[in-house]
Design a protein that fits this description.
5% strand, mainly alpha, two-stranded antiparallel sheet, 59% helix, 2 strands, single chain
Length: 193
């Protein structure tokens, strides 16, 4: 999990460009700002924004009063965008959904083919988590159901070599990602024979 200062800045930069992003055909939008250290920022996606907002929610307890105020402002900004651009957000979520499905499928096949190891799982599983959030956002879009059906098949495949265990991310996120829905965050794939 990134430090909350970083997440606050990143969320602010993402929200500044969110409306332009929604109106674009891009799935992975390059953010025009630089981080305070000058390093490039990740590309803006709805999935990435949702994960960053969830990290901030988990970090609220560690924030100063000023940072909590900033966080509240960002949440209000997000809510205004959500209301104003509801249909655009649904369409953008559906567009990203296919990309997250493809990335997740490729990772699972790489494990099968022993091209990748399960050491990368805590990072790669981000695509599966983003898919879940994006599917919820885009549920009324016609292309969503076939993607969800395909993901359910990939979930069956993962379950065949998944070993239940500890939560794979920072424990502060456990309350945000309950095991009943996000079971794939509670354990790791077993190495393939």
């Amino acid at each position: 999990m990134h430090p909350h200062d970083y997440n606050l800045s990143l969320t602010s930069f993402m929200l500044e460009e969110l409306e332009d992003y929604i109106l674009s055909s891009e799935v992975f939008w390059p953010i025009s700002k630089r981080s305070p250290t000058g390093s490039p920022l990740p590309r803006l996606t709805l999935g990435g924004l949702i994960l960053t907002l969830n990290e901030l929610k988990a970090q609220e307890i560690d924030m100063t009063p000023s940072q909590r105020d900033d966080h509240d402002k960002l949440l209000r900004h997000m809510e205004r965008v959500r209301v104003k651009w509801a249909v655009g957000l649904e369409r953008k979520a559906a567009q990203e959904l296919r990309s997250r499905l493809n990335l997740w499928r490729a990772y699972l096949f790489d494990i099968d083919e022993r091209v990748d190891t399960t050491e990368n799982y805590p990072y790669e599983v981000r695509n599966r988590v983003m898919f879940e959030h994006l599917a919820d956002l885009s549920i009324r879009q016609p292309d969503t159901k076939p993607c969800v059906d395909e993901m359910r098949n990939l979930d069956k495949r993962l379950r065949s070599f998944f070993a239940r265990g500890d939560f794979v991310w920072d424990t502060r996120l456990e309350n945000i990602y309950p095991q009943s829905t996000f079971w794939y965050l509670y354990g790791l794939p077993r190495p393939r024979d």
